[in-house]
Amino acid sequence: MSDLEKRHEILFVDDDRVFLEMICELFGTWSKKTWQIHCAKSADQALEILKSGKIDLVVADVNMPVLDGVQLIRILNRRFPDVKKAVMTGLATEEKRAACLANGAELFIEKPRSADGLKSVFVMLGELIAWTPREGFHGVLRRVGLPDVIQMECLGRNSSILEVHNQQVRGRIYIENGKIVHAAVGDETGEVAFQKILALSSGEFHLQPFESPPKHTLEGQWEFLLMEAARVRDEAASQAPVGEPDETSEPVVAAEVSATVSELPSRVTETLICSGQGAALYTWQCQNINARVALLRQIGQQAKELGELLPLGNFDRLELQLPDSRAIAQVQSDRMVFVRVVSGENSQPKTP
Amino acid sequence: MKNIALNQWLDGCGIAPGMLGSGVRLPDGTCLTKNFNETWPSEQFDQALPLFAGALTMLSNYGFVPRWLTWTFAQGQIRIAAHSNGLLLALATEPNTPAAHNLDQFTEEFLALDFGH
């Protein structure tokens, strides 16, 4: 059987037995038997079938007794996040559509009342089966610096490839489990390439899913790599002739992001990096360093108490979801880091 | 009545694969915890709930009043959220599991719970 003829396992959940029989027969024929259709008359029957682990798509009716379609979709979204989900209902309303889509359904369809309608539904479900969801988020960030993006990837212990390009150069920085392991631009690799990429004054970046780099050319802590790159860039800027800035010197990176990160900030508003003993190594817009260091120490102390009580392993970080921003406090034996980010483009956080 | 609804909600958290335990600290200091994994020590989880409450107080002393916070360790995450009625939620999950990925959804659900009067 070729890829084109690959069998797909589809589960229809509906308390209307006649409808299920019709769907089973029609869709089975139209798909030329490439769809293996399963039927469940209730949510609990559906969950039992789903335990087999081979279902590609669930199509659920909204109005069912005991557990309705919206509740079923919500449960499926938690327990079977990889299974595609569609909802079909005889009484479509905007409220139902919104509830189903908000709870994880990829498709909301009105139950067809004609042969043509059934054919349309068949085509739509076929498209949904063939659709491959893109991982991560996709959106536009403005006024974002490359160090901000790298910091968030490293703090989040993510693995990704940061692709950067402008009209002159194209470079790649490989981040593996929060460590910068390789950089390449043109023929150059390692720290030279990393510094060259970080020295770019404008361009675009894309966060791509991680692939193993051809080789590992960087090691050491990402904080120091960033600080060294900033120092090299500052030195180069101080030696450059003073003149009218051209268009490419605009210190703004407007970028389209397709990333595997869980959440990207629009703007980093505060950064503090210090040694494990609390000596500040790098600060940016941190108005009260002593207070931040004291906070990090207390977080470390509380994490230690929790770690002694619960089998959780080594502490990594504490994330705070604040009303106007998000903060990450990382406390390790050799370093403490505090980063605060604001999600709104124009919002200014109140710094405690 | 409030405890029945709370019990049901805490039990419901267990359907997500990777959820280790769920618990709530009531305003009077008593705790209600659920265990979804035999390796998860429920007694210690009970004892940890006052520590989480203490962490919130400590953060407020520094001017931070988070909607929720997440303690991330190598082998698990703990989400803490304080309801407006004084209940303190703690959810413990294994990392990189559906439960961990849905912590925001669980938290929003908890914060929106209305137990009536």
Helix/strand layout:
The complex is a heterodimer of chains A (352) and B (117).
Chain A: E1 8-13, H1 17-30, E2 35-40, H2 43-50, E3 57-61, H3 69-79, E4 84-89, H4 94-102, E5 107-110, H5 115-130, E6 137-141, H6 146-155, E7 160-165, E8 170-176, E9 179-185, E10 188-189, H7 190-198, E11 204-209, H8 222-239, E12 255-259, E13 267-275, E14 280-284, H9 289-309, E15 315-321, E16 326-331, E17 335-342
Parallel strand pairs in A: 1-2, 1-3, 3-4, 4-5
Antiparallel strand pairs in A: 6-12, 7-8, 7-11, 8-9, 9-10, 13-14, 13-17, 15-16, 16-17
Chain B: H1 2-12, E1 19-25, E2 31-35, H2 42-61, E3 68-73, E4 76-82, E5 88-93, H3 98-101, H4 103-112
Antiparallel strand pairs in B: 1-2, 1-5, 3-4, 4-5
Describe the overall structure.
The complex is a heterodimer of chains A (352) and B (117). The C terminus of chain A is likely disordered. Chain A is an alpha+beta fold. The longest helix of chain A is centred in the C-terminal third of the chain and has 21 residues. Chain A is built from nine helices and 17 strands. Chain A has a five-stranded parallel sheet, sandwiched between helices. In chain A, strands 10-9-8-7-11 form a five-stranded antiparallel sheet. A five-stranded antiparallel sheet of chain A has the order 14-13-17-16-15, covered by helices on one side. Helix content of chain B is 38%, strand content 26%. Chain B is an alpha+beta fold and 117 residues long. Chain B is built from four helices and five strands. Classes of the chains: A alpha+beta (352), B alpha+beta (117). The interface between A and B is medium-sized, with 32 and 37 residues. Strand 15 of chain A pairs antiparallel with strand 3 of chain B, so a sheet runs across the interface.
